[in-house]
Amino acid sequence: MTDPAVVLKQVFGFDAFRPHQEDVVGALASGRDALAVMPTSAGKSLCYQIPALMAETGTSVVVSPLISLMADQVAALQEAGVAAAYLNSTLGTAEQDEVLARVGHGLRLLYVAPERLGDERLVRALRSGPVPLVAVDEAHCISQWGMDFRPDYLRIRGFADRLATDGAGERPPIAALTATATERVREDIVRTLGLKDPLRVVASFDRPNLAFSVERPRTGKERDARVVGFVKERQDRSGIVYAATRKQVDALWEALRASGVRAARYHGGMSAEERTGAQEDFVHDRACCVVATNAFGMGIDKSDVSYVLHAAMPQSVEAYYQEAGRAGRDGTPAECVLLFREADLGTQRFLIEHGSEGCDDPAAEQARLASGYARLEAMRLYAVGEGCKRHALLGYFGEKAPERCDAHVEACGPCVAAAARAEQHVADEDRTEDALKALSCVARLQNQRRAQGRGRVAAVLLGSRSADVLERGLDRLPTYGLLSHLPKAEVERLLDLLCERGLLAQTAAALPVLYLTDAGVQAMRERAPFLAAPAPRRGTGAPSSH
Ligand code: ADP
C-alpha cells in the first residue's frame, strides 16, 4: 500500500494535508468507516480519493447526487492521470457499457448517481474485483432532516452490503461526507448508512473573515431600495445578491440596471446559454454583481466575492450558511447581509408545502413538512435574534462558539451594536416583569389547551379589540392586555427574544403555536432576571439592523 503523503504529492501535487484529511484517509485505508463533516472547500474529495488510490487495485465507488459536479470531478482526476469515470443518465448505452467494462480492470474511481445503485450489471461488475471503498458525497441527502432528502440514498446501505466479496463477508469501508449537518442529521447518516464505529471528524465551520448581519426593511419597496443602495456603494467589488424567486431576480436586476449598475442575473428560467454568459460575466468581472436564485453558486469558483446580500430569507440555516459562505473565500474581510421581512416567511412556507414533489407515503410527507417548518423556524430565529450571529450560526451546527465575536474575527451586526452601546454607556434594560407577563400568557393558553400563534399571543398581551380576539373570547383571559403599555413591535420583539433565549419555542407546523419550554417554566418559577438592549427606535425611516 502506498504512503498517503506520496499520493498527495505525486498525484495531486500538494505538499501537506489540510486539517482532518489525513485522519480520514488513515481510517478508510485501514478499513474503518468514516463520517467527515467539513465545510465547502475544506478538501473533502481527497479524503476518499487518496485511500482509493492507495489500494493496489480495485474500483472505488463514489455516490454523488450532482451530475455536473460529477463530470467536473472526473475531468480533474483524469487530468491528474487517474483512471476515473462516471455513470449517470447523461451517458448512452454504449458509453455505459464501456465504463462497466473498465470496472475492476484498471478503473480506480467510479462516480455514480444514486439512482444507478440498483443496476444489476453495475453490482456484478464491482463484485468481480475488490472495491477499496464506497464514498457517499453530500451524505446529508440520506436524512429526512437534511436539506435535500434523496430517497435513492436509502439504497446505499444495501448496495454496499452486496459488495461484500471478501472471505469474511465484510462490505467495503464507507466514507460519508457532507458540508452541512446538524447533530440530528449526523446521527441519521450514521444510522441509515449503517456505519460501524466510524471515525467522526467535524471541522470547524467558523469563517472568521465573514461579518454577518441582518437588516429589517419594513416594506418591499424599502427592501428593493436597500438592495440598490447597498450594491451601488460597492461597485468596485464583486458580490452576489440572492433573491427568493425568478420574478424577484428580474425585478431587482432591472432596478440595478436602471440605476446604472453593471449587474448580471441568473435563474433557472433563463436558457443555458444565458446562464453561462451571466456566470462568465461575473467570474471575469464584467459584471460587479449577480442577482440570482439559489440555483446560482454550486461549482462557481470565484474567491474574491466580497459580499453576499440576501434580499429574502432562505428556507434554512443550512442553505443560508452555504450561500453566504460563497463570500470571502480568499480570506479577506467580506459581508454577509440578510434582509428579513416577516412577509418572506409566507413565501417560504408556500415553497415548503408546494416546492417539492412531495411523497406518496403520508407519514413520510408529514415528516418532510415538519422538518421543513422546523428548519424555517430556526432560520427565522437567526433573522430576528439579537445575540451574536456567529454564535447562532455555529451553535446551529453543533459547534460551541464564544457568546460574542472577539478580536480575531470580523464582528457581526449585533456585536458591533453591543460594542457601540458599551462605548456610549447604554446599559441593558431590566425586562423581567414584561418577560414574566408574556410567559404567563403563553402558559395560561397552553394550560387551557388553547395554544396560539405568536401574532395572537401578542394581540392578547396588547389587549387588542380585533374581531379575531373578541370572537375567540380571548379578551376574557386574565393575561389580556397585560402589556398594553408597550407598542406592538415591542411585544413581538419580546416574544422573539424569549424564543431566541429558549424560554419559548414554536411548534413545527404550517400554523406554528408558541409554547413554554422547560427553561421557560423554570424562569417563571424562579422569576429569572431578563435583560435586553433598549428597544430599537422605530419610525425613523431607517431599517432596524442587527
Ligand atoms: P470540498 O469537497 O470540501 O468542497 P474540494 O475537495 O473540492 O472541497 O477541495 C477544494 C479545493 O481545495 C480543491 O481545489 C482541492 O484541490 C484543494 N485542496 C484539497 N486538499 C488540499 C491540500 N491538502 N492542499 C492543497 N489544496 C488542497
From TrEMBL:
<dbReference type="InterPro" id="IPR001650">
    <property type="entry name" value="Helicase_C-like"/>
</dbReference>
<feature type="domain" description="Helicase ATP-binding">
    <location>
        <begin position="25"/>
        <end position="199"/>
    </location>
</feature>
<dbReference type="InterPro" id="IPR002121">
    <property type="entry name" value="HRDC_dom"/>
</dbReference>
<dbReference type="InterPro" id="IPR018982">
    <property type="entry name" value="RQC_domain"/>
</dbReference>
<dbReference type="InterPro" id="IPR036388">
    <property type="entry name" value="WH-like_DNA-bd_sf"/>
</dbReference>
<dbReference type="InterPro" id="IPR014001">
    <property type="entry name" value="Helicase_ATP-bd"/>
</dbReference>
<keyword id="KW-0378">Hydrolase</keyword>
<keyword id="KW-0347">Helicase</keyword>
<keyword id="KW-0067">ATP-binding</keyword>
<dbReference type="Pfam" id="PF09382">
    <property type="entry name" value="RQC"/>
</dbReference>
<dbReference type="GO" id="GO:0016787">
    <property type="term" value="F:hydrolase activity"/>
</dbReference>
<dbReference type="GO" id="GO:0003678">
    <property type="term" value="F:DNA helicase activity"/>
</dbReference>
<dbReference type="InterPro" id="IPR036390">
    <property type="entry name" value="WH_DNA-bd_sf"/>
</dbReference>
<keyword id="KW-0479">Metal-binding</keyword>
<feature type="domain" description="Helicase C-terminal">
    <location>
        <begin position="223"/>
        <end position="370"/>
    </location>
</feature>
<keyword id="KW-0238">DNA-binding</keyword>
<dbReference type="InterPro" id="IPR010997">
    <property type="entry name" value="HRDC-like_sf"/>
</dbReference>
<dbReference type="InterPro" id="IPR044876">
    <property type="entry name" value="HRDC_dom_sf"/>
</dbReference>
<dbReference type="InterPro" id="IPR004589">
    <property type="entry name" value="DNA_helicase_ATP-dep_RecQ"/>
</dbReference>
<dbReference type="InterPro" id="IPR027417">
    <property type="entry name" value="P-loop_NTPase"/>
</dbReference>
<dbReference type="InterPro" id="IPR011545">
    <property type="entry name" value="DEAD/DEAH_box_helicase_dom"/>
</dbReference>
<dbReference type="Pfam" id="PF00270">
    <property type="entry name" value="DEAD"/>
</dbReference>
<dbReference type="InterPro" id="IPR032284">
    <property type="entry name" value="RecQ_Zn-bd"/>
</dbReference>
<comment type="similarity">
    <text>Belongs to the helicase family. RecQ subfamily.</text>
</comment>
<dbReference type="Pfam" id="PF00570">
    <property type="entry name" value="HRDC"/>
</dbReference>
<dbReference type="Pfam" id="PF16124">
    <property type="entry name" value="RecQ_Zn_bind"/>
</dbReference>
<keyword id="KW-0413">Isomerase</keyword>
<keyword id="KW-0547">Nucleotide-binding</keyword>
<protein>
    <recommendedName>
        <fullName>ATP-dependent DNA helicase RecQ</fullName>
        <ecNumber>5.6.2.4</ecNumber>
    </recommendedName>
</protein>
<dbReference type="Pfam" id="PF00271">
    <property type="entry name" value="Helicase_C"/>
</dbReference>
